[in-house]
Amino acid sequence: MISALDLCDLPSGQTQRIPNTRNAIAEWTETLAPDVLVVFEATSGCDDILIATLTERTHPFSRVNPRQAREFARATGVLAKTDRVDARVLAQMGAALDLPVTRPVSPARATLADLLRRRRQLVDMRKAEKLRRLSAGHDDIAEQIDAMIALLSTQIRALDQRIKSLIDKDQTLSEQTALMRAVPGIGPTVLAILLGELPKLGMLCRRKIASLAGLAPHARESGTWKGARRIWGAVAERFAKPSISQPCPHLAVCPRSSPCGTGCVPKTKHRRPSSSPSLASFSSSSTL
Questions:
Q1: Which range marks the domain in which residue 145 is found?
Q2: Which of 39, 66, 96 is the last residue of a domain?
Q3: pTM score, two decimals?
Q4: Which of 105, 109, 120, 261 matches a 20 to 30 Å C-alpha distance to 198?
Q5: Do 165 and 218 belong together in one domain?
Q6: pLDDT tens-place string over residues 134-179
Q7: 3-state helix vs strand vs coil in the chain, percent to 5
Q8: How far is it, in rounded angstroms, from Cα 56 to Cα 36?
Q9: In a domain, 201, yes or no
Q10: What is the distance between the alpha carbons of residues 150 and 154, in angstroms, rounded to a whole number?
Q11: Contact 51/105 with Cβ under 8 angstroms?
């Protein structure tokens, strides 16, 4: 968790630093006009206090992709990178571009994201312990590792039950769950990850949500040259796309008559495909 926030106000260009606390952020927002858009980078949980405070005060904000902010800085000739420079770049980005106002997620979806984050941590810990179990040289060490694996598995199952209960109690999440369950190959774990890591699911068209999830092939063309289209740039690169790839072997072989089978590409025999065809077919069939 970051301890301070660097701020930049336009058109004056003055910068300041405030503590990353609810009281400090609330006092700062009182100095802003109601129509002033607050622009900041997504920082994987470090901006939770800022988002919660702005949401409580119903102040508009735009949470931008850090990669896009850095590319904007380079495009404007700013190569240096410090917290103060980043604050000024974000302010200029908000003034130059028509950034969309970020819709705050519901409390249930925010809780779901926290539970999924913890579940992911436990799964990674269990995976590491299983690898250590393979190289355990003594029986007592192996027993300790087995006990730790059993404990982690118990905690993961408890989290799964809590996640299921949370989804069932929330009307919006339960409605989206019913829609996604109609797609073959979507299990409860993948379903929960999609709901938690892609809050815009159901708000965008199929092409935009597929691009956001990193499943839409992007064109690479210049003049007469046409390169292979590749999937990249996922907002949930580490979480959503690896989870989506799990049911895709089923989707890749389903027949054309199946709702999820339209657009599937046959497997190549003599060369490695440039991108997973099952991912492309999934993006075109199972968006809401």
A1: 107-169
A2: 96
A3: 0.71
A4: 261
A5: no
A6: 988 899 999 999 999 999 999 999 999 999 999 999 998 998 888 8
A7: 50, 10, 40
A8: 16
A9: no
A10: 6
A11: no
